[in-house]
Amino acid sequence: MTPQIALLRGINLGSKNRIGMPALRQALQDAGFDNVRTYVQSGNIVLGSELGSGALATRCHKVIAATFSLDIPVVVRTRDEFADVVDRNPLRDVADNPKRYQVCFLSGKLTPKALETLEAAAAESERIVAIGRELYTWHPEGVARSKLWGRVAGPGLGVTSTSRNWTTVTRLLEMADE
């Protein structure tokens, strides 16, 4: 089975869309996925599957809907795609705090207009780089008051998106290699 990383959008934020990780792992194992592991409580799953990324995202979405009665978007990358994300690291020279360095995983590429809107929202100290289906964003003052973060994390990009900080991104790659 090929190691893949499934990223759930918007679970376990406050009292909304609550899913326990043990129950999620069990549901995915029962659905036939191999070596299912989770990282923290925010919907980071490493598993083995021979499905392609799109088919795996659809299958995980259906399992979650059937098991938990929740409509949770899922974005998937293979282990090798995740390694490429880490290897590219276009902001390595400026992003010195992994908790404030985010990668937004997209279901498809952004339109030039959507990217222009994001770039316009960035504060002078922030950085944003789009490469393929990922956005790398640096928020040196944190994400709490960032207009850029509000746009990246909110609706309106035209694609499904979910973000993870650099610590989580690198840990998920390590888990896929275990």
Task: Describe what this molecule looks like in 3D.
It is a single chain. The protein has 6 helices and 8 strands; from the N terminus they run βαββαβαβαββαβα. The strands form 2 sheets. Strands 2-3-1-4 form a 4-stranded antiparallel β-sheet, with helices on both faces. Strands 6-7-5-8 form a 4-stranded antiparallel β-sheet. With 178 residues, the protein is of the alpha+beta class. It is globular, with a radius of gyration of 16 Å. The protein folds into 2 domains: 79 residues, 2-Layer Sandwich (Alpha-Beta Plaits), CATH 3.30.70; 95 residues, Alpha-Beta Plaits (2-Layer Sandwich). Helix 4 packs antiparallel against helix 5. A hairpin with a 2-residue loop joins strand 6 and strand 7. The chain starts with a strand and ends with a helix.
Strand adjacency order, main sheet: 2-3-1-4
Radius of gyration (CA) equals 16 Å
* Mean pLDDT value: 95
Helix content: 25-40%
Structural class: alpha+beta
Strand content: 25-35%
Number of domains: 2
The gross shape turns out to be globular
Count of helical regions: 6
Largest sheet: 4 strands, antiparallel
Q: Write the H/E string, N to C.
A: EHEEHEHEHEEHEH
Cα(first) to Cα(last) distance is 13 Å
Question: In CATH, what is the class of the largest domain?
Answer: Alpha Beta
* Low-confidence runs: none
Based on the coordinates given, report the CATH architecture of the largest domain.
2-Layer Sandwich
Count of β-strands: 8
